[in-house]
Amino acid sequence: MDGTNKNLIITIKRKLRELVKFTRENKFSSILFILATLFFIYQHYTYLSWDFSAYTLNAKYLFSNGTYFETQRPPLASFIMGIFIFLGKFTEYLFIIIVSFLFFYSSIKSADILLKNKKKDEDKEFTRFIFYFFSLSIFILLLGLKEGTELLTLALLELFIINFVKGKIFGFYLGLAVLARYQMIIFVPLLILNKDYRKIIKNIAAFIVIIFPWFLWNFITYGNWFSSFIDGYAQNVILRENRFMPFAISDVIKAGGIYLITSLFGIGISIMNMTKKSVNWWGENKINVLILLVSAIIIYSYYIISFKFARYLFNLALPIAFFSSFFIITLLNKAENLTHHKKKFYIILFFIALITIASATSITYLERNAMDKFYNAAQDIKKLNIENCEILSPHWVPVTYFTENVYPPKENNINDVINNKKIILLFSEKTIDDAFTEEDLKKLKDLYKTEDYTFYAPSNLTKDCSQKKTFALPFVSNHCQFMSQKFTKLKLKDLTQKVCEIINTNS
Question: Is the Cβ–Cβ distance between 409 and 433 less than 8 Å?
Fold first, then answer.
């Protein structure tokens, strides 16, 4: 055995011993991690969402000669899956395990760093347990990995905040968070919150180094550095502006759940502490101020977007976990028999956690058949021997996940369908993309019909049909022109377009 292999074996053994030691010292947190991960795996086995399907398809396109790609998707989730794409279906479950572990790790580190000066004793195990406990609300469990990137983004946000507090370079983590969800760009101003200009430069540089390869790929592939970012902005913001939804306090309540109460108590205590004069006021309140600032940014980003979902408040899990833990620690610090009370809290909180995971599992079980129709449609595509035909459907992603030959009906031109021998797949569940009218459909024949969906085809469709293709078109046709429209009111439309065209090609 050569020296390199011997050193590798020694390193692995040491890491395994450290893992065993950590598990023993943090048994309650470790058990919660295992149970939460098993739930995430079960959820994905039971329910395959639209977004998760799209990230998987993008991974196949980038790493395994896939034929479908959505430009508006940020790349990190697909990149992580793409590394292990050779494992087939197991790739998705490995991604879930990796993200769940990353979130567990970030929660443990958050407890160690953010709550370090909040407790009188040095019981790391308990502090870690309560922080991770409050991080696993039913809202987080149900939405964390259902769509694919929420839990990943939250973990990276926590690592970003941890390194911010420690005074280390944190631009790296913010760059990864932006590549997980473009909405995280709203935290970029925090890069300049530092007295040391050298650290500001290093953080900005680290951020740019992380995001640069993806933007370079966009430039090389589509002729615009920001094509993916603009496409995401167009789909999630611009095209939904006419569907404005007011700020809903009910969404905040959904995001916080019952832990919103404990977090509000924690915020109240924190604000009371801030009103007290102290020689080291900033040192004592810096973390509280930072988490309040993060909370304000999250709520503001939710407020300004037109079309609102409760899951856009997902990152509130960090301040809710922090202030709830702060509240519990404050209570225990005032208790006389500290050890006795901690044992009670362990039992109570662990029991609540089990109920929460069981409830999430029950809700997921009730959704177990929600996506069956898309799988069944894909099976019928194979039975009808039209796997190589171009099929248009307003539910294209959940079906093309299985077949890679179903595409968005962008133009909805019935004559184009007839002349080019395309097939239409419509489901009984309607979406905003269902633009084919009853009159349009009368011009077609029912190729195959079930209770949930119908395949429509031109009457001249025999053996040949419009063939499947590689689909990787940008969501927006002219990115510079599209973005310049947003500066019309500021009378900067022409300038914006000229600057955009100078730094890009083929725009």
Answer: yes
pLDDT along the chain (507 residues), means of 10: 67 79 86 96 95 96 93 95 94 97 96 78 82 96 94 97 92 96 94 88 95 94 90 77 77 92 94 83 86 95 86 94 93 72 83 95 92 94 92 93 90 80 88 76 89 89 83 85 75 79 70
Q: Is the C-alpha dihedral spanning 415, 418, 422, 428 positive or negative?
A: positive
- Number of Cβ atoms within 10 Å of the Cβ of 231: 24
Q: How far apart are CA 76 and CA 65, in angstroms?
A: 18
Give the CB-side neighbour count of residue 496, counting CA atoms within 13 A: 15
| Max CA pair span of the chain | 85
- Say which amino acid occupies 265: F
Q: Taking the chain, what is the end-to-end CA distance rounded to the nearest angstrom?
A: 58
- 406-407 sheet: strands from edge to edge: 406-407, 391-392, 423-427, 453-457, 445-449
Q: Which residues pair with 341 in a beta bridge?
A: none
> Strand pairing partners for 454?
426, 449
pTM (global) more than 0.85: yes
Instruction: Tokens 């993916």: give the residue.
Output: 228
Tell how strand 406-407 and strand 391-392 pair up: parallel
What is the rounded (10 degree) CA torsion for 181, 86, 98, 292?
Answer: -10
CA-nearest of 236, 241, 212 to 226 is: 212
Closest residue by Cα to residue 160 from 311, 301, 291: 291
Candidates 170, 194, 196, 186; CA nearest to 294 is 186
DSSP letter string over 224-243?
A: -TTHHHHHHHHHHTGGGGGG
Task: Report the DSSP beta bridge partners of residue 391.
Answer: 406, 423
What CA–CA distances, in Å, run from 462 to 143, 317, 385, 445, 455?
Answer: 44, 55, 12, 12, 14
Element at 425 (helix H, strand E): strand 423-427
